[in-house]
Amino acid sequence: MSNLQASNLFSVQGRVAVITGGGSGLGRTMARALAINGASKIFVLGRREDALRDTAALAQDGLIIPIKCDITSKESLEAAYQAVAAQTTHVDVLFANGGILGPLMRPPPPKADGSLPSLAEVREELFNIPMAEFTKVMDVNVTGSYYTVLAFLPLLEAANQRRPAPQIGVLSPPTAQVVITSSIAGFNRKVPFSYAYNVSKAAVTHLIKSLSTNLSPYDIRVNGIAPGLYHSEMAENLFADGGIQGSGISDGSFPREMIPLTRGGSSEDIAGLILWMVSTSGGYLNGTMMLTDGGRIGSVPNTY
Ligand SMILES: NC(=O)c1ccc[n+]([C@@H]2O[C@H](COP(=O)([O-])OP(=O)(O)OC[C@H]3O[C@@H](n4cnc5c(N)ncnc54)[C@H](OP(=O)(O)O)[C@@H]3O)[C@@H](O)[C@H]2O)c1
Predict the structure, then answer these.
(1) Which segments in the chain show pLDDT lower than 50?
(2) Domains of the chain, first to last
(3) Are 240 and 232 in contact (CB under 8 A)?
(4) Nearest CA to ligand 1 atom 42
(5) Which of 35, 173, 219, 285 has the lowest CB atom count within 10 Å?
(6) Enclosing H/E stretch for 291
(7) Which of 232, 237, 244 to mutate for ligand 1's pocket (most ligand atoms within 8 Å of CB)?
């Protein structure tokens, strides 16, 4: 078989993965994609055991392993780490994907006559949201992602220790990798979800860069994903607000001025991306950010 055949280039055969937020949405799709394509163990972490079990039920028995974990608690992360370490010698890839949107924090929309809300109305809308709601979003998305990565470092290092000695002219297998889910909200001021969410994802994007730099001497790669709009539990209300039917993956689901490809992200879009990142041909990704947004980052302001 040629080394350039797709089955070789995109193979994730035998990989061991940990996925936070694996009980729903993008994390569940990631788990399924890895399971279907030959990964040997996939640990899905989250707070809701029933959701994790539902993900596990989508694959052959024992391939996807649910582990209860709240990423905002060091004790819970340590317990989850120990539970994973009891069932595998190493972890090839860690997806720090768990996150929350929190309450929408955005100024009221323009009035019917097109005039802006007064500054008093803007203040009323935003100042009424308790500070704790803002902090919670930071706790889960930023602090939680950071401590998730720290918790799993030993098992990532163990994956590197299993790599064969390099042979001249032979491509070495990928080093261990962390993939953190950020968002286009983190670097586009025009995506008006929420101040807290957008700021948290900007911080996550910076976290990806900092960790990548600081873990590179240990051969642990850190990369990021910045999705645009994908149908999930988190995004459900955004879809409903916009009057979008179903998962929004067919052409014409969204106005072109919002998403140039006129649709939301699909499970194929995210599954193909992460399979590549985890596969042989993703092994040269190091400290980079993968944008999957249908061109939204370059679109004009919108209200979803
Ligand atoms: N969908 C989109 O359009 C979109 C766009 C850009 C970025 N993202 C990012 O993609 C990631 C996945 O989101 P999603 O869209 O798939 O939404 P989702 O279905 O709501 O998934 C979020 C996951 O995070 C987990 N989670 C939340 N708080 C947690 C905590 N304290 N400890 C452990 N797990 C926790 C949830 O599980 P439990 O509730 O069971 O804990 C849930 O499975 C998030 O980081 C999100 O910000 C999504």
Answers:
(1) 304
(2) 6-163+173-236+266-295 (3.40.50.720)
(3) no
(4) 21
(5) 173
(6) strand 289-292
(7) 232
